[in-house]
Structures are given as structure tokens and as C-alpha cells.
Amino acid sequence: MIYLDYQATTPVAPEAAAAMRPWLEEKFANPHSPSTWGREAAAAIEVARGQVVRAIGRDDGRFAFTSGATEALNWALKGTALRQGRNRIITVATEHAAVLDTCEWLAGQGVDLTVLPVGPDGLIDVAELERELDERVGIVATMLVNNEIGVIQPVAEIARIARARGALFFCDAVQGFGRVPLPLASCDLVALSAHKIHGPKGIGALWVGEGVALAPFLHGGGQEGGIRSGTLSSALCAGFGAAAALLGRDDVEPLWAIAREAMVDWRLNGSAEARYRGNLNLRRDGIDAARLISEVRGVAFSAGSACASGSGRPSHVLAALGLTGAEARSSIRLGFGRYTSEAELHTALGLINDAAERQL
């Protein structure tokens, strides 16, 4: 199987798997126990915390491990949305479902929600954001790199405008962390996920800037600095830390060039310039993407977000670009990265193109 679904999840790095193994086997103790083994497990978590914090480039603020990005996204929004005097959220139509659905839930609790549109390139109009911002806006939420189309939003500029008006800025950096520069100095809250950077599934993190008041999302023992409850997995933390320590070593430009040349009969969805080049979202008229995926059994790729697969809903991201239902159904997403060889990419693209031709 040739794996081209890096936006859904990344292969676990051997170094991350090795870092996890002792804490899954002989060193299995609860890291919140005062026993000797428990203290060893707790120390491993702090080593991992330091590795991730060094990778993001800021050792101020607060950093809390979570069960994944979905928890981090929910926590950031629900923990800040009801600030006194600021009862409004602004987000973007192409955000991950975990953000949009959380914002819709908050709207049901009385929060005023504004969802900004994007252009055909997938980018927001920053001038429209400026027009929408007022003193009631408590938080602006924008992802760094889109999970379906790879488009990079101008996060630093969006954050500058939001914070100048007194709003917090929250960045979903799940797809961008380690792939593109993370403008952390511009952010008040940042969500991360381990399994998008060659770490394990089931663990993520939320970074919270200095001075940001954040209400707890999970209540209980307050194991993470008193603000996040739940027993941490030393193994998952260690895997996250080891994966974070490897970041910055990937070069997807040669793979992007190969893919663009091979897929010349396909049209690119979203901006070609403001884009992470390990994500290629393409469409071709007359193609049934679902059928294509099932027919090319030797290649793992997708038609969009793994989180929305099986929901029966068309891609809200492609719809936000202005694509018709037929155009969305003829779109595929190819994701590649650290462990993708040029030879296997050539092979995979050939198989996809051959299957596409059989449909026409």
C-alpha cells in the first residue's frame, strides 16, 4: 500500500514508537501516583512537555496535554467564549468541523456567531474581518493550514487585527505545526495534535498565552496544572515529545513538483501559492472520487476530511470555495510527506490517472 493520506494521519515515526514502548510495557505506572514508578512516569511526561514546547518555540504561557485536537479546540472556544462584555465569536467557513460545530453549540447558548466566507482561493478577505470586528468580539478563530485543501491563512495579520480590537486570537495549528512557520507570538491560544506530526493518536495539546483566562473544560483531579483533569498517558506524551523533536526535517517540494506534473489533467482546488505543498486537492470533471478511491486499492488517499467521511455530508470546505456538488464529488486529496519516496509517488499517481481514464 502506498500511503498518500498524510492529512488524515501520519505514519508513526520509529523514534516516537521507541519512546512510547517502555511506558506501555514495564513502566506502566500512573504518573499521578506518588510511588517511585509514578514519579518516573511523571518525569517522562515533563521531558515530553519540554520537547513539544521547544518545537513550538515559546516557553512562556501555559501548555497542557489533551486527549487530542478536538478536546483542545473545544476547550479553547468554550473556555473563553463567555468573557464578560464580549459575547461574539468570529470564525471562517472552511474551519475544521470541531471548530464550526463547537461555535454552533455556543451560538445555541447565546453567543453571537459570525462565519466569514472565503474566496475561490480559500482565503478570507482581511478587510471584511476588519469591518466585522467590534467591541463585542471575544475571540477570533482561524486555522493555520486547512486540512482539506492545504491553504495557509494569513494568521499573523488576522491575529494583529483581532488583538488590536481587544479580541483573543485562537489558532488551530494542527495541520501547520512543523510544516509551516507558526506565528505563535501573534496567538493567544494554539491547538496541536500528535498524530499529524508522526506521533501517536489520542493526544494533543493546547498552548495558552500569558494573561489569557481559560475556564476548565474537564473537571476532576486537575492533573494538568489544575486546569485540565484526567490521567495522562506517559506513553502517548513520550511519543508526542519524540515526534516533536524531529520536526523541521521534511522537504515536500520535490514531491509537490512530481505530483503537479503528473496530474496535469486535474484542476487544483484552492490557492497554489498560499499553500502547504504536502497537500494536493484536485478535481477532474466526470470523475467519481468515491469510486476512484475504491478502485485504486494499492493507494491510500481520500476525498476530503477523514472526520467527515461517512457522514453523507458534502465537503463544506469545497462548497465554501464555490464548487458545485458535482465538482466536489470529483475532487480528491493527496497528502505526502516524510516517508513518501519519489518512486512510490510516481507509481501511485500513475495508478490514479489510469483509473480516472477508465471512468471517462
Q: Give the overall shape, derived from the CA principal axes.
A: globular
Q: Strand arrangement, largest sheet?
A: 2-8-7-6-5-3-4
Mean pLDDT: 93
CATH class of the largest domain equals Alpha Beta
Write the H/E string, N to C: EHHEHEHEHEHEEEHHEEHEHHEH
Task: Note the main sheet.
Answer: 7 strands, mixed
CATH fold node name of the largest domain: Aspartate Aminotransferase, domain 2
Termini separation: 25 Å
Q: Estimate the helix proportion, in percent.
A: 25-40%
Which structural class do you get from the secondary structure elements? Answer: alpha/beta
Count of distinct structural domains: 2
CATH architecture name of the largest domain: 3-Layer(aba) Sandwich
Structure summary, number of beta strands: 12
Radius of gyration: 21 Å
CATH homologous superfamily label of the largest domain: Type I PLP-dependent aspartate aminotransferase-like (Major domain)
